[in-house]
Amino acid sequence: MKMLSNVGQRMFAQLFSWALFLAVAATLAGLCVDDSDAAENAVNLCAKTSRDVLASCRSEAESDFLLANARCDNLSAAEQRNACRQEAAAEEEDELMSCKEQFDVRQSACESLGPGPYDPAIDPANFVDTIDNPYFPLTPGTTYVYEGQTSQGLERDEFAVTKKTRVIMGVKCVEVRDTVRVDGKVTEDTFDWFAQDIDGNVWYFGENTHELESGLISSIDGTFMSGVNGAKPGIIMKAHPVVGNFYRQEFDLGNAEDFAEVTGLNSSINVPVGKFHRCLKTKETTPLEPDLLEDKYYCRGVGNVLVVDEVTGERSELIEIR
């Protein structure tokens, strides 16, 4: 075999050294990417989300204060300006306290949910057309009627399972119209969208809600649709609930964030529509209303039969199924 000349040997050595350098650099770059991914995965993303929302809430409170203060500056009388500024400062303090209370609820939820992000995989092929979960059956054409005395008056809630459907994230959802009246006047009119997966879990894909005053829409807070602006579906009812289950029922940060925890499977309930045994009990909370705490009871073959506000003691009972 013919030997390389000295010049050829030097050129070969230089090329080999450069190739070796590039190979080592590529390997190190790959290790850096892997380390970066590992570091990202090691972060408690649930807790980080809570902190991010806290920062957003505080920023909004400060923005509201600055705008309120600007309005105060346009009052002619010094006494009025000072009173206005004091009120603005007090409102900012209340908003900041609310931000902290919401943060505490989210952080507490993260202890049960774990450190990962909330990003459920939704495959339309994994959903069925019928919602027959024994604790949350939704048969089209059925209406559930609830009543209860509240501080605002007699509240009547009609939860009507329509024959309409809506496709969300590729999943065909059952549409439910939920209409609330207080002393005969409509105060809330909402369309909810549910779907059941092949395992029997019932998912909540969103709602279009209108709160009304004197017949006019006063708020659409809570309205969301999964797949839009980061909103994601949650589970309304597990296929096989177990005491201690803690899960998200909806996910739209700062707008729709209900949590549920299964606290019992053997409750006996007596409501106007009948007596039930071995009913499921859940405790439901939301960071958007830190003081809200509701116990809900679901009975096999019927669904939700009773809601109890643990703070006020108010009850909403199932009085009729038609």
How would you explain this protein's 3D organization?
The chain is an alpha+beta fold. It has two domains: 45-113; 128-321, YmcC-like fold, CATH 2.40.360. It has helices at 6-42, 45-73, 78-113, and strands spanning 127-128, 143-150, 153-168, 171-182, 185-197, 202-213, 216-219, 224-225, 232-237, 246-248, 250-251, 259-271, 274-285, 294-299, 303-309, 315-321. The chain has a 16-stranded antiparallel beta sheet that branches. The longest helix is centred in the N-terminal third of the chain and has 37 residues, at 6-42. It is globular. The model has no long low-confidence stretch (mean pLDDT 91).
Explain the layout of strands and helices.
Elements: H1 6-42, H2 45-73, H3 78-113, E1 127-128, E2 143-150, E3 153-168, E4 171-182, E5 185-197, E6 202-213, E7 216-219, E8 224-225, E9 232-237, E10 246-248, E11 250-251, E12 259-271, E13 274-285, E14 294-299, E15 303-309, E16 315-321
Antiparallel strand pairs: 1-5, 2-3, 2-16, 3-4, 4-5, 5-6, 6-7, 6-8, 6-9, 9-11, 10-12, 12-13, 13-14, 14-15, 15-16
Helix pairs in contact: 2-3
